[in-house]
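User: Structure please.
Assistant: Input sequence and predicted structure:
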Amino acid sequence: MEKVQIKAKERTLKTKSETKTLRKDGMIPGVYYSKHDTPISIGISQNALNPLVFTKETHLISLQMEDDRQFDCIIKDVQFDPVSDKVVHFDLLGLTSGETFQLEVPIKYIGSPVGIKEGGVLQQFLHKLDVECLPKDIPQHLEINIQGLNIGDSIHVSDLNYEGLTLLNPDETVIVSVTHAKVEVEPVAEEAVEGEEESAEPEVIGKGKADKEKDEEEED
């Protein structure tokens, strides 16, 4: 996988005022951390970070610090503003050659299922898979061929196998399936039960005025 170089500025104050100034300058605050390095508070240009966040691909990042330090890493976590959906904070996980790590990898579905042509509906339950791998084996995405799916067919995690990757989702997890289209059935009036007298009196819910007066006369 090709590395994407990103320049970062180390943050020393870590105060609310500094964070506010950073965002005003078009930078996003974040943290770089790894097993072997002390966490570093950093800021990255919003224009540089957004393409790596709003994408369906995984990217290997070469983080370039102002003091010429360089770290290989991936985006591990992103926090968004609940109103504007803008990135407000991020975490970068440092990678070490020869050591496995865990990450989420986007799924790319290939082909059009046979079952769709027969009136079925495609249901995608997962858009990413949790995997463990070495840095050299990081995939941009995981391809799943769904062309052979008929109505009623599903693909589970246990059906997949990728060289150099260990899938961490439970084996029985359904990833994608083709189901029958839902058909709305109009209500049908119930037919009279055979042998039941049509003239049968309905259950009395309440008496009318005339019935009340008749009862009173009989009592007198």
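Residues 5 and 62 are 5 Å apart (CA to CA).
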